[in-house]
Design a protein that fits this description.
10% helix, 72% strand, mainly beta, single chain
Length: 318
């Protein structure tokens, strides 16, 4: 998909930027001296634990599900790189961050596919498969204004743009279908799923310098503008489903603890949660290969995302 390829190119550009900017900043700071701003970089490892949901509703007005595909991240290991900027003032200051997380290819749990083709609350079709996260890229750009209440306490007012790009495959496993519900083994890659989330959020936070070595920060973001773009390929049936989903809402609280090791180097632990719900939109159902249109299903598709994120980083002040 064009959007997914573009995000991967943007991620590569971001990595190059994080290498180049510190070098330029160091050169500038040595010549400008006492400029009133501070640059730092952070490199770390983290874990995502959660799942993404691919949803199909019974009709355009119903909240009842026809199908649910559960794509786990349990867990997903990733590496991260972040560039921080802060323009310091006596009472007010500007700050920003540009971050990238890149997941490591791995098995991340059991993917399940459930269908409800009758009015009963019990699902009628079920399958389970090994889930592999082939790709995971998460990017965040955050800008804000800091207001200091004292030398040790400050409040943030911030806005953030986020993008998350995932690609999963479901392999091997088994099916349990009517009429006999006999467990039938399947082999190979049966389903692939790509999901791209784009969101705009705003929020508040605070920072507390506990002592010369310890600092604590926390923030809460709300996401009133969220778009999801996804592509589902059923490889055994040679069918493809493409969707653009709107109307989602999300929250993104986080807390960070920083330990200063030297004047220029710190260790940081970040704990956060991200939840996105309520995305719905239309589905274009096509044949794989020929791309012949089978049907358009209005407002019958949905998606959701929930994950806890824990990360340990080394922060270097330039």
């Amino acid at each position: 998909m064009t959007a997914h390829r573009r995000l991967r190119l943007d991620a590569l550009s971001l990595m190059l930027l994080m290498v180049a900017v510190p070098l330029l900043a160091e050169e500038r700071s040595s010549s400008a001296g006492g400029s009133g701003y501070e640059l730092s970089t952070a490199t770390g490892l983290g874990l995502l634990y959660g799942a993404s949901l691919e949803l199909v509703y019974k009709n355009s007005l119903s909240e009842k599900l026809l199908s649910e595909l559960y794509w786990p991240l349990q867990p997903l290991t990733y590496w991260s790189s972040t560039l921080y900027f802060e323009c310091k003032g006596n009472e007010y200051g500007l700050f920003g961050s540009l971050g990238l997380k890149s997941g490591l290819y791995s098995y991340t749990g059991t993917m399940t596919d459930k269908d409800w083709t009758t009015s009963s609350g019990q699902y009628t079709h079920f399958s389970a498969h090994d889930c592999y996260t082939e790709r995971a890229l998460l990017m965040d750009l955050t800008l804000g204004l800091q207001s200091r209440l004292s030398a040790s306490i400050g409040f943030y007012y911030l806005v953030s743009l986020s993008a998350m790009d995932f690609f999963w495959t479901a392999r091997d496993g088994y099916l349990k279908y009517p009429p006999g519900y006999i467990e039938t083994a399947v082999y190979g890659i049966g389903i692939s799923y790509e999901q791209l989330w784009l969101s705009l959020s705003y929020g508040i936070g605070f920072e507390w310098t506990i002592s010369k070595r310890f600092g604590l920060a926390a923030m809460v973001l709300v996401k009133p503008m969220v778009i999801a773009i996804d592509e589902d390929k059923h490889l055994f049936r040679l069918e493809q489903f493409n969707e653009t989903l709107y109307g989602a809402f999300g929250v993104d609280p986080s807390v960070s603890l920083k330990l200063s090791l030297t004047e220029w180097l710190s260790a940081q632990v970040d704990l956060s949660y991200r939840g996105l719900w309520g995305a719905r939109g239309d589905t274009a159902h096509t044949e794989m290969g020929s791309e012949a249109l089978i049907g358009i299903y209005e407002n019958g598709a949905g998606a959701a995302y929930n994950a806890v994120d824990i990360r340990i980083s080394l922060v270097s002040r330039l």
